[in-house]
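Our collaborator T.R. sent over the components below with a one-line note: 'Predict the complex.' Nothing else. No constraints on interfaces, no templates requested, no preferences about which chain binds where. So this is a plain run: every listed entity goes in together, and whatever single assembly comes back becomes the starting point for the next discussion.
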Amino acid sequence: MQKDIKRLSLFLLFAPFALWIALLIILPHLGMFYISVREKVAPRVYEFGLENYINFFTEPIYWNTLIRTGSMSLLVTVLALLLGFPIAYYIAKIAGNRTRGALFLMCLIPLWVSDLIRAFGWILLLRETGVVSSSLQWAGLINTPIEFLYNDAAVIMGLVYTVILFMIVPLVSTLDGMDNSMIEAGYNLGGNGPTVLRRIIIPYAMPGIVAGCIVVFMLTAGSYLTPILLGGKNSSWFTEQIYDQFITRYNWESGAAFGFLLLAFTSLVVWAGLKLSGQTLNSTVAKS
Amino acid sequence: MAIKANPIFLTSYRLYVAAFFLFLAAPLVAAGVFAFNDSLFPSLPWQGFTLDWFFNDTEPKLGMFHDRRLLRGLYYSFVIATGVSLLSVFVGTCNAFLFVRCDFPAKDFFYIMMVVPLVIPGVILGISILLLASTIANGAEETLSLDLDFLRPGIVLVVLGQFSFITTITSLVIVARLRKFDQSMEEAAYNLGASRVRVLRTITLPFLFPAMAAAGIVAFLVSFENFNTTLFLVGSEAPLTITMYDRMVKVGSTPVLNAVSFFLMIGSALLALVSVLVQRDPPKT
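Returned assembly:
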C-alpha cells in the first residue's frame, strides 16, 4: 500500500517534467536536426543530404559571421569577468553590511529591465544627436557631433552592459560563502595581495567564475537585439543570419542547419570551458 | 575586513565601483528621462517638462495610454506572462518535489536535463519549437485535413516557447526552498494523525509558498521582457517588446517609447520589490 502510493506520486511528479523536457526541448531539437539534413529537390519533394551544411562551409560570409560572433562573445565574456570581479568582491567582502544589500539590489535592478530598453537607452546616449555627443559639444571639447554608435566597440560595450550582471550575481554568492579568515591566513603566511588573489580567492571562486562565464557566453552568442540596434547594418551577428534565413528568405532547411551549428558551437565552447576548469554543469549553473 | 589596504588603492577601488554604478544607471536614466521632454524626439536640448507622452490623446504627441497598438501589446504581454508564470510555477513545484523528495534511477542525469534549457540560446529554442509545431500542423493538415491553428505562430506557441526555459528558473528557486524544509515537521504531523493531503496543505505548501510566489514573479518579469524566443513564435498578437521593436525599426524612436520604457521600469521595480519582500522570512516574535 505505502509502496504503491510512493510509486504513484513518483509517476505523477515525473509526468510534467517528462512532458516538458520531451515535448519542448528534446523533440524540437531532434526535429530541427531532421529538417537541417533535408534538401529540397523539387517543390514538396525532399531528399536527405548535407547540402545545407555544405552551403555554410562554402560561403565564407556564413562561417565568418559565426567565427566573428564566437570570438566577440569570448571577448565580451573576458571583459565581463575582468570588470565584474572587482565589483563582486567589493560587494561580498569589502562593503559594510548595509551598503552591501543596497549595492547588490542596485545590481539586480537592470536585470529586470528588458534588453530592448537597455539598448534603447544606449542609443539615446551614444548617437550623433545623443546625450554624450551633445554634452561634449556643450563643454567645448569637440566641434562637430560625433557618432559613437554602429561600430564594434559600441556592440561590445552594449553586450558587456547587458550580461555583466549575470557574471556578478553568481560571483557574489560564491565569494559570500568564503571565510574571511582564509584570506587572513594567506597574509599571515607571508603572501602579498596578488598571491592571495591568485592562490586563495580565485580557486575558491572558481565555480562562480565558471557559472558566470557559461551564462554570459551563451547569452552573448545568442543575443539578437543588442548587436542589431547598436551595431547597425554591418554588425553581422550569427543570430541575425538565422533570422534572415527563416523570416526573410523563408529557407527553413538552411535556417535549421544554422541553428544547429550555433547550438553545436556554443555547446562545444561550454564543454571545453568545463573541461579546462575541471567543473561540471551540476557544480556551477545548477547550484542555486 | 582585517587587511590593512593601502589608502590610495582603496580610494581608487571605491572610485571604480562608483563609476561602475554610474555606467549601470546611465542608459536606464536616459531611457526614462526623455519621456518627460516636451519635444518630438528623444534627444537634447531639453524643451521643458511634460506628461503628454503618457496622457495626450492627439497626434503628433500621442501618449502611450492612447496608443492602441502599444496598449494591445501590453495586454498580450500580460496574458502571455500570466500563462507562463502559472504553468512554470506548477511544473517547477512538481520538479522540486520530484528532485528533493523522490529517488529514482539516473536522477543526476535528469537534474542536468532540467538545467539544460537555461544554457540553450533563446533563438534556438524559438526556431526549434516553431519547426516542430509547423511540421505537426502541416502533417495534420495534409494527412488528416485537420486544422490545428494553435500550432501556428501565435499566443499558444509564445507561451510554450517561454515556458520551455522559464520553468528551469522557477524549478531552481523552488528546489532551493524545499531543500531547507525540516522534514521532522511533517513527521510530527503524521504522528498526530494528519492525512497526506492535510500535511501537504497545512504544512508543506505554506512553507513553500514564498518561493512559489517569488518564482512566479520572476517568471512574469522574464516573460514580459523576453524577445529572442518570442521573435520566432509570434503571430498577429504581438507582445509589447515586439511591438516596441517594430516601432523602433520602422518608425524610428519617439518619446512615446521612452514613456513605455519608464512605465515598464517602474512596474518591474515594484514587482521585484514584492518578490524580495515575500521571500523574506517573517520576523521572529
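Summary for T.R.: DSSP finds eleven helices and no strands in chain B.
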